[in-house]
Amino acid sequence: MSFQQDQAKHLLTQADYFKYDLSKIPTDKLSWKPHEGTMSALEQVDHLATATDYFIMRGTGDGQAEFQQKPPSASLEDALSRFDESINNAVEAIQNVSDKALGDFLPTSDGTSSVSRQYLLTTPAWHITYHWGQLCMMQAMCGDDAFHLLNDDSPYAKRYDIAEVQV
Known about the structure:
The protein has 167 residues and is mainly α. The chain contains 6 helices and 2 strands, in the order H-H-H-H-E-E-H-H. The chain has helices at residues 3-22, 41-59, 76-96, 99-102, 117-141, 155-159; strands at residues 105-107, 114-116. A two-stranded antiparallel ribbon has the order 1-2. Helix 2 (41-59) packs antiparallel against helix 5. The longest helix has 25 residues, at 117-141.
């Protein structure tokens, strides 16, 4: 498996985990914030879609284009649609970058430094992982402290033989 294929699969896996645990948040709590200065679950979905779009725009070398921030989603369905679109665009960009181009360094948006294309294209996966952790904490704060990762319907169970996993 190439680096690009591995990273595309990793991004899809993290997106699936995030959406799976998002589905465990009660609908009436999607706009709830644990405290001021934090994001609600719905805001996190929008944030991840926007950030993924930004990193992919920069990582594909389109750094001179002006990034357009989208307005907040009106509903969970709209936010998930935006999220899925951003993930699909990211997967396509990652799969289509050449080995040689992965090593390129691109100027930062302010032009004062540079960052590797590989870093820019792989940032969305770990960024989603970070917010997945926040979502799991919100899930627990809503009263659901179950460990859902090994449920038969979880993304993990669909990719791995959960009978071999010990917790």
